[in-house]
Amino acid sequence: MTATLPVAARRSARRARTTTLVAMAVLPLSLALAGPLIAPHTVDTPVTAPFAAPGDGALLGGDQLGRDVLSRLLHGGTALILGALLVAVVTTACAMLTGCLAVLRPRLGRAVERCADVAILLPPLLGIMLIALAWPGGGRWAVIAAAVVLGTPYAVRIVAAAASPLVTSGYVEAALARGESTPYIALREILPNLRATVLTLFGLRFVEAVYVISMAGFLQIGPQPPASDWSLMVRENASGILLNPWAVIAPSLAIALLAITVNLVTLSLAPDPTTKAVTRS
Fold first, then answer.
1. Alpha-carbon gap, residue 195 to 154, rounded angstroms
2. What is residue 5's predicted lDDT score, i.e. its pLDDT?
3. What is the DSSP-derived secondary structure letter of residue 189?
């Protein structure tokens, strides 16, 4: 009974922390996704003087063309979030399937390890530029494809490393003795025991995708003016940061807040690896 109370208290504190983090993440996500519906102005209509300070009609002032910074900020996050979410889902799904199969098939595992070594050595910016040059009309889709291609080998290696100790476990050996197929063992025996790794990996892939897509947007690889994009806003308004700092600070804070809150939520949702050990004691 004495060992049960600390576990219950820790679970209650963990649920409270998770609820708080989810609430923190919902706010920027909701504002970004629903921003176009509540923006006070259109994204391409000048309402102030160029780089005007915050005032009436423009809560965050104007950008380099006098457009409302707040309206462009509310319009600029939807494509970034959806693109990063797509990259995270595709990368994590490929990593789950390939990583679990790689530990059961040594030849596939060695091939994955070699591909991961090459992908890690390739700078993300160089990979994005190569794919953008090979697909000049791809725009944002070229950036998303580059993020998936560059991130999948490393993610597969992480899943394979986490799944490797499970291959010698009793339930996997029992499944092999029963003659179960490799996909069955990978999906039904190994993958359910990697929930913490998968959730953490998803959060990291989402954060990396946010930064990769933002970096590409800052370099004008993907979204092009006059599109409203957070990273593009930073680039366009950098010259007037002393006149209206919010034109640069607001989109920068939005990118950072999005990445941090989503990563913290995925970490809090991952199963506690110490719970089982404490319960047994």
1. 18
2. 46
3. I
